[in-house]
Specification:
The complex is a heterodimer of chains A (about 100) and B (about 400). Chain A is an alpha+beta fold and about 100 residues long. Chain A has a single domain, classed as Beta-grasp domain (Ubiquitin-like (UB roll), Roll), CATH 3.10.20.30. Chain A has 2 helices and 5 strands. A 5-stranded mixed sheet of chain A has the order 2-1-5-3-4. In chain A, a hairpin with a 5-residue loop joins strand 1 and strand 2. Chain B is an alpha/beta fold. Chain B is built from 11 helices and 26 strands. Chain B has a 5-stranded parallel sheet. In chain B, helix 5 links the parallel strand 10 and strand 11. The longest helix of chain B has 15 residues. Chain B starts with a strand and ends with a helix. The chains are: A alpha+beta (about 100), B alpha/beta (about 400). Chains A and B meet through helix 1 and helix 2 of A and helix 1, helix 3, helix 8 and helix 9 of B.
């Protein structure tokens, strides 16, 4: 189990315990985190799982070009810390990461 | 107060329930669906769900979400009648449910083949989780598959089945794949990709019959050839589930007819998603679109209307299809008789096809070019058309520069 924290659009802070073998987006939607529509289901298509990474004690895997390209033109302006969380796999290395939900 | 009742818990129905709560709707919200599964993503059914025998459905939202947001989920319950005057629904178990506002988000059903043998065991369609489970259970032991229909679902499945090492044939009535959904150059590029993956394509070919033995499919008979088959997947399009609306006397024509606020012809009844014919602002006429984007954006728009800030629905359509390693993305809607500009990557592969109508950029198809797709969505939505000479480069950085120059002018 990997502990992850989400700051929902309302400012509400929620901690979840996520199983490995799924994406951060899948873990977040299963736990009912608000503001993540994830309407393409993880195809790196819709940018509705856009989050800012506030803290990443163990670092995060690098972005692939699809993710970077999709983020560059998303509705919510891309920032330095922007990620599409459907493209990040839950592993023990990302324990303690804090995501701020941007949504669409 | 009985609140809002939504029939159909697909992408549109679930998004509407979520958006109602996000926009502060305080009434009761009930989602009713004949489908017994926790609402799930449909696109993965033809892909990741088939990968392993126990791959789970991908829920649209976790169960926790429905609880937290006080959304009543009424799964495995079928509504059989709408009583408009009494504002209530009658279910197949005889129970009745009242509503203040009713939303039909009933989606589509797979069109059935009418040729002899279409009812044989081993002949599948792929629309719901139930369909997907049946197909998946039938895969072990299958060697030769015939896919009937060269549309998105058929081609996604064909690529997935070929990747599993099955011998796959696709039979399409039209002379090209993907009908009018994409340009011929994109269709041709996808055809070449599939052939490279070992899929055999039979275009311009009609099915005469599906033959079987002991109730199970053995082959598919074409006009000029017989294809042996252990398994047949039928992907010949979908039909709107508009019976409830029709029986209730609502205007129905190629789907449930709604206005720009997604209101049907009857008071307090709305409809969204694949099942509706709506005034499409970019085309300037009523049309019906089958896509996740259309369902979810209509849901967001309707949530605004139901919470007192009506907004006409005007979102730009976009689509995607993962066909094996090819990510096809479409922004906007091409027009008949428009002009097309194709760009290629360094290795000569088609990368994007821009559609212009009257000099205006109206649509763009991309193949594994996500940045160009996202940029096109913006340009089309904002009515910005870079010079042809710039579009032709297919260089996202150049196109972005041209877009920014107009935007900041």
């Amino acid at each position: 189990m990997t502990k992850l924290t989400f700051i929902e659009p309302s400012g509400n802070r929620r901690e979840i315990e996520a199983d490995g073998g799924q994406s951060v987006m899948q873990a977040a939607t299963a736990a009912g985190i608000e503001g993540i529509a994830a309407e393409c289901g993880g195809s790196c298509m819709c940018a509705t799982c856009h989050c800012l990474v506030c803290e990443a004690p163990g670092g995060l895997p690098e972005m692939e070009s699809d993710e970077a390209d999709t983020l560059e033109f998303t509705a919510e302006e891309m920032r330095e810390t922007s990620r599409l969380i459907c493209q990040i796999e839950v592993t023990t290395e990302i324990e303690g990461t804090v995501f701020k939900v941007m949504g669409r | 107060m009985p609140g809002t009742v939504i029939i159909g818990a697909g992408h549109g129905g679930v998004q509407l329930a979520a958006s109602l709560r996000e926009t502060g709707y305080e009434g009761r919200v009930r989602l009713i669906s004949a489908d017994p599964d926790l609402p799930y993503h449909k696109p993965p059914l033809s892909k990741s769900f088939m990968k392993t025998p126990d791959a789970p459905l991908q829920p649209l939202r976790g169960e926790a979400f429905f609880d937290q947001n006080d959304i009543a989920l009424d799964l495995g319950r079928e509504v059989v009648r709408v009583e408009r005057e009494r504002k209530r629904l009658i279910c197949s178990d005889g129970s009745a449910l009242d509503y203040d506002k009713l939303v039909l988000a009933t989606g589509t059903r797979a069109r059935k083949l009418t040729v002899p043998g279409a009812e044989l065991d081993g002949v599948h369609s792929l629309r719901t989780a139930e369909d997907a489970r049946a197909l998946r259970a039938d895969l072990p032991g299958a060697r030769r598959v015939v896919v009937i229909g060269g549309g998105f679902i058929g081609l996604e499945a064909a690529a997935m089945l070929a990747a599993r090492g099955l011998s796959v044939s696709v039979v399409e009535l039209a002379p090209r794949l993907l009908g009018r959904a994409v340009s011929s150059i994109t269709a041709q590029t996808i055809a070449s990709y599939l052939e490279g993956e070992g899929v055999s394509l039979h275009l311009d070919t009609a099915i005469e019959a599906i033959d079987g033995q002991n109730g199970r499919v053995t082959d598919v008979r074409l006009s000029d050839e017989v294809l042996a088959a252990d398994l047949v997947l039928v992907g010949v399009g979908a039909e709107p589930m508009d019976e409830l609306a029709r029986d209730a006397g609502l205007v129905v024509e190629n789907g449930i007819v709604v206005d720009e606020f997604l209101a049907t012809s009857a008071p307090d009844i709305f409809a969204i998603g694949d099942c509706v014919s709506f005034p499409q602002v970019h085309l300037g006429c009523h049309t019906r679109l089958e896509s996740v984007q259309n369902a979810t954006d209509q849901a967001r728009s309707l949530a605004q209307t139901l919470t007192g800030t009506p907004q006409p629905y005007a979102a730009l359509p976009w689509f995607w299809s993962d066909i094996g390693a090819v990510k096809l993305q479409i922004a906007g809607l091409a027009r008949e008789g428009g002009e097309t500009l194709a760009t290629r990557s360094d290795d000569g592969q088609v990368k994007s096809v821009y559609h212009l109508a009257g000099g205006q950029l109206v649509a763009c198809e991309t193949l594994n070019s996500a940045g160009e797709h996202m940029l096109s969505r913006r340009m089309i939505a904002e009515g910005i058309t870079p010079a042809r000479t710039v579009l032709e480069t297919g260089d996202t950085a150049e196109i972005k520069k041209a877009y920014a120059a107009v935007k900041n002018f």
